[in-house]
Amino acid sequence: MKRNFLFLFAMVTIIASSSAFTSRRLMFRISRNYVSAATHKLSFLLNKNGHVLFRHASKSTSDCSPMLFSSSSFEMTANEIQMKDDALKMINASIRAVDPYAAIKRKMVMCKEGDTLETLVVEVDDDDDGAEQIKYNMSKYDRIRVLSVGKASAAMALAAGEIISSCGKQLDGVAIIKDDHATTEEIELLKEKYNIVVRPAAHPVPDARSVAGSNEILQLAKTSDSRTLVVACISGGGSALFCSPREPLTLDDLMQTNSALLASGMPIEKMNVIRKRLENGKGGKLAAAAFPATVLTLVLSDIIGDPIDLIASGPTVPDDGSGWDDACRLVQEYGLEADGEYALPDTVLNLLRLGKEGQLEDTPKSSHPAFCDSPPLCQTVLVGNNRAAVMAAANQADQLGYNPVVLGTRIDGEASVVAGTYVAMAEMLSQQREHHGVGSYQIAGLPAALIAGGETVVTIPAECNGKGGRNQELALSAAIKLKEIGLRDVVIASCGTDGTDGPTDAAGAIVDGASVDRIEQTNTGRCAHDAMKNHDAYHFFHDVNADYRSHHLIQTGPTGTNVADVMITLVK
Asked: What is the mean pLDDT of residues 558-565?
């Protein structure tokens, strides 16, 4: 009974604390085995006829002292090999489901009414009573502008351009992308066919290219008029990519601020409360700049709960949910003050102080004319989110014969802590193997697939030189805990849907109960506990010479989408 209580407590804890053309381009790279998502299949070079190997329950150690192991003690079992294959299929399905190009094509269409009148129809939401629609009579507009920012901006702009160009109106625009997040073909097609220029820039810390591209977008917005339809495509990563410093701040001030915010472990939604007040386009300012133009915003959400005003810092929606006081409170809460561990530049702290004192204008609210007209000039449509990715993974799990359980799409908190909860749940589920009187209280029968979405954080000390990301850290922490309790036939994967986890070329990692032993015994000098202490999961997992079974990093390359993370726990 006690174990059942602990299991339910773990489950309640994790839920309560939680919050183009990718179908053509997505490519999983597992060592030298390449798998194209265009075929909607995965085929790995596996020997799936191996017998179940000896299960070694290693004791927890705080160091990496040499130990004697038989080779079979840290080999993958047949179940683990199969589950690794299956987990990657689920991740593949989740990313395909949030392809931004396909998402916009599903939501928006140009319809003809009669011989000449054309209407842009945008589906707002699906429910049991049918989908609500927004309709734009294209005869009211002389010009259409596509302004796109975020990691998925190229694919979103391409889809919007294809649909809108059919009406024959003047079309132009700018798409700011993260480096390497658009193919050469996409960039050329956007420019030559739709007159939309692509501006690559840095992420997660903005650079001079971010500022130049953002100022170009703001200038297009300011030169729009009442006969202009602005289609704003917003996706995750837009906060860094769409970056125009507010006077008297400089790019260097914003770069230092972004670095401090990232190091502090502050969740992205709170970071954006501060960012909105330091720049010219965030927090509804892009829509205000475009007034009196009509603005349609298409959003691919990367934030838990889909708060439209926080995704890419809400450039086209009113900022009713935060103010100068909130920004200043976060400075105190996360040690960002002048004498804090993650001190912001003095110029930034001074600007926030002046704002709190009422000496500076705040972000536009719902009372601004861009937002208060009837019918509204600015409307926003959510085209994709983490829930869509998670449900696709669950559907794939079901097709593969697992009993899927969706834990939610609001998972947050420290990556290492969340990992411990997944391991605890896996351990409880595994007890069905021995029928320890707990079968009646399990949330799923075996084989089980626990699937969750959200975005964890990693709090990094000021002088830390490790390399990794939240998904790799979650996987490393899980691997350590699986080893400590000797739990086998469990596979845990955590993956960023954008294909980039932290400043690395990996999207995440996938582990089993013998991962730590395999890596430490075959790579002299590597220690899982040291890697956790130094937040250096990438270097612990990375091995260019590893075969499929030994490869732990999930490397997709840029996927062209971004809806936070998907986490999968499989138990047989």
From this structure: 92
Token pair of 119, please? 């209407």
CB 134, CB 379: distance < 8 Å:
yes
Which sign does the torsion angle of CA 421, 426, 429, 435 carry?
Answer: negative
Farthest CA pair distance, the chain? 81
Q: Is 7 helix (H, G, I), strand (E, B) or coil?
A: helix
Peptide bond into 375 cis (omega under 30): yes
Residue 207 tokens read as 């650079």
* 3-class secondary-structure state, position 139: helix
pLDDT bucket at 100, cuts 50 / 70 / 90 = very high
Count the residues in the chain.
572
- 78 contacts 381 by C-beta, under 8 angstroms: no
- Tracing tokens 């937002």 back to the chain, one arrives at 371
The answer for residues whose C-beta is within 8 angstroms of residue 354's C-beta and 6 or more apart is 360
108 pLDDT above the threshold of 60:
yes
CA pair distance 332, 67, nearest whole angstrom = 47
SS (H, E, C) 83-125: HHHHHHHHHHHHHHHCCHHHHHHHHEEEEEECCCEEEEEEEEE
Q: pTM, whole model, 2 decimals?
A: 0.77
Please report, as a single letter, which amino acid is at residue 297.
Answer: T
Q: Is 54 left (phi over 0), alpha (psi -120 to 50) or beta?
A: beta
Helix H or strand E segment including 288: helix 285-290
Alpha-carbon gap, residue 298 to 164, rounded angstroms: 14
Helix (H) or strand (E) holding 484: helix 470-485
The per-type count for the chain, helices as H runs and strands as E runs, is 20, 17
Query: Using CA atoms, how far apart are residues 301 and 59, in angstroms rounded to an integer?
Result: 42
Q: What is the DSSP letter of 21?
A: -
Q: Classify each residue of 200-217 as buried b or exposed e, where b means 16 or more C-beta atoms within 10 Å of its C-beta.
A: bbbbbbbbebbbebbebb
Rounded CA separation 190/498 (Å): 21
Cα 134 off chain centre by: 28
Which two tokens mark 59?
Answer: 């004791």
Give the integer Cα–Cα distance in Å for 553 and 502: 13
Report the sign of the C-alpha dihedral through residues 158, 160, 165, 171, in that order. negative
d(CA 481, CA 66): 19
The residue to which tokens 């390449």 are assigned: 34
Question: What is the token pair recorded at 129?
Answer: 């009573």
**Whether 294 contacts 230, CB under 8 Å:** yes
> If we measure between CA atoms, which residue out of 491, 507, 451 comes closest to residue 26?
507
% pLDDT > 90, the chain: 69
Strands 294-300 and 228-235: parallel
Per-residue pLDDT tens digits for 337-392: 999 999 999 999 999 999 999 999 999 999 999 998 888 899 999 999 999 999 99
One-letter amino acid of 484: E
Residue 183 CA to residue 104 CA, distance in Å, equals 19
Instruction: Tell me phi and psi for residue 450, to 5 degrees.
Output: -95, 120
Strands (E), 273-388: 294-300, 378-384
CA gap 285, 172 in Å, rounded: 20
Within 13 A of 329's CA, how many CA atoms are on the CB side?
Answer: 7
Bridge partners (DSSP) of residue 570 are: 449, 491
Element (H, E) at 198: strand 196-201
